[in-house]
Each structure stands twice: as C-alpha cells, then as structure tokens.
Amino acid sequence: MITQHEILVWLHILAxxxxxxxxxxxxxxxxxxxxxxxxxxxRRRHMETAYRIxxxxxxxxxxxxxxxLHMGYxxxxxxxxxxxxxxxxxxxxxxxxxxxxxxxxxxxxxxIALTRWDERIRYVLIPLLAGIAIWSLVTGAPFTQGWxxxxxxIYSGLLVIGLGLRFIMRHWxxxxxxxxxxxxxxxxxxxxxARELSMGRLLAYVYWIGIGSVALLGVAKPF
Length: 223
Prior knowledge:
The protein is mainly α and 223 residues long. The chain is built from 6 helices and no strands.
C-alpha cells in the first residue's frame, strides 16, 4: 500500500522539479524579453511564455511550505499536527488562489494589485520562518532536528530571492505598457530592463544553489 507520507514525498519532489525547472525556463525567456533588437510584439510573446512557465514555479514554491510542514510532523521534526496542518493547507489554498488570480489578470491593474498582495504574504512569512528556524538551531525547539531547521531557514532565504525576481517580473508589465505608449522606443526604459535582467541573472544563480541545498538536506539529513 502507498502511505500518506509517500504521497507527500512524491508531491514534494514534483513541487521541487517545477520550481527548479520553471525558474530555468523564465531565465531563458528573459533574454528575449529584454532584447531591444526584437520587435515589441515578439518580446511580449516571450514575456507571455515566461509568465506561463513561472506560474508553475510559483505554485511549486507555495506548495513546498505545507508539504514540508506535513512531512516534518510525520518525521517528528516539528511538533504541530492536526488542526494546525489543516489551517496551513486551507491558507495555502487561499494563497494559491490569489497567485493564480494574479496570473490570470497579469496584464491588468487588478493583476498588479493581486501580485502586490502575494508579495505582502511573503513579508510576513519570511521573517516568521527564518526566526523560528534560527531559534530552533540555537535551542533545539520547536524544530527538533537540525537539518530540518536549516532547510526551513534556506527556504525562507529563497523566498527573499523569489520576491526580488517577482519584483522584476512585475516591472516587465509596467515597462512594456510604457514602451507601447511611446512607440516601443525609449532608451531609459530599455536600460532599466537590461539592469534588471543582469540583477535577475545573479539572483537566479544563487537561487539554484539554494534549491539544490534544500534538496540535499532533505535527502541526506546530515545533522
């Protein structure tokens, strides 16, 4: 029989795959989004491709939180089960609905507003997860296993990087609106796109190293 924990592990692997693979797809599409030699319509098509890939990565990132907490409870690495996990899953569903709503409305002011609410969730979640993880590494509680605390801490750091990449993608929409309004020719906006692409590349490299580290900690459980 397939156990509940094995299903959670399977879903966790899928979420990691979509997270890592999706970010690579967005990274490659970004080259053409910021290429001023291409026509504005073609660049918009590449931006649309990036958004469609990115939504799967965003979904994976969000799902990793309840999956990780649920698996951590099964493994005895964190003490909160029962109603706590039920609430976490319900809040996750609401968060996913917000994220997908922002994706569906991505070319509108509503989509930008929903994206900002998605970002605000991270403003609360990142320090909360990082604080609990650091406290647990120092005191051994509430997370009782060091590898799990370290994994949560790195995950919170990756959410910070992801937030930066979300800022960049949100700027794409506003920049392309401005470019369209100015006939697709504005040196200052093109320079901003180039700067943000350069910053995004650096963040992406750190992102991939962090994702790999989280995966290794979960598999090896070294301490």
